[in-house]
Amino acid sequence: xxxxxxxxxxxxLLAGCSSEPDRPIAKQRMLDNRNLGTTSxxxxxxxxxxxxxxxxxxxxxxxxxxxLIRAIIEVESNFRPDVVSKSNAIGLMQIKASTAGRDAYxxxxxxxxxxxxxxxxxxxNIDIGTAYIRILREQHLAGINHPQTLYYATVVAYVNGAGAxxxxxxxxxxxxxxxINNLSPEEFYQHVQTKHPAPQAPRYLWKVKNxxxxxxxxx
Length: 219
Prior knowledge:
Elements (H helix, E strand, L loop, with lengths): L7 E2 L19 E2 L21 H11 L3 H12 L19 H11 L8 H4 L2 H19 L6 H14 L1 H5 L6 H9 L3 H11 L4 H19 L1
Antiparallel strand pairs: 1-2
Helix pairs in contact: 1-5, 2-10, 3-5, 5-6, 6-9, 6-10
């Protein structure tokens, strides 16, 4: 499916990606660096979807920005809970049971992996996907200092895995994190655009960033 700022924010794992139509961006919005990647406090009203209650619950439980969850859902499935990709990524957040699903279950203290019916259940899918975002930030990408860079890294890791991202810097995780911290967020973004071996990764980051930005300026 197996996805986070100083200055103006233009929008922060292993899943299939659904296509998203381009949308105009009317304006940009200033975001508090401290809030990025945590439960959103700067936005007081949200898009009305059938899944808002589940998104808010999971965002609070795992300390993930609500609009990041919404942006990933929009790009991954366009809010369709029954969609299944060719690689068997399932549901709203396009989760693969044997990878991100298993990792989320372990994080939640459960054994095994979610069933297909579990992943087609919107509440369970959102909870598992949000738990996986937390795992990425807390474990695989721990040590990245800048909130915007961490946001970008989380989105890329969500779609193609943290290991693939880190190896674009160094095979040693510690050295890779150090190299990332020596870049500005803009330099990191350009690194992904030009150096990531998976061609879908740069496009995915661009689409989630734009979806997030549209949510932020509209509500």
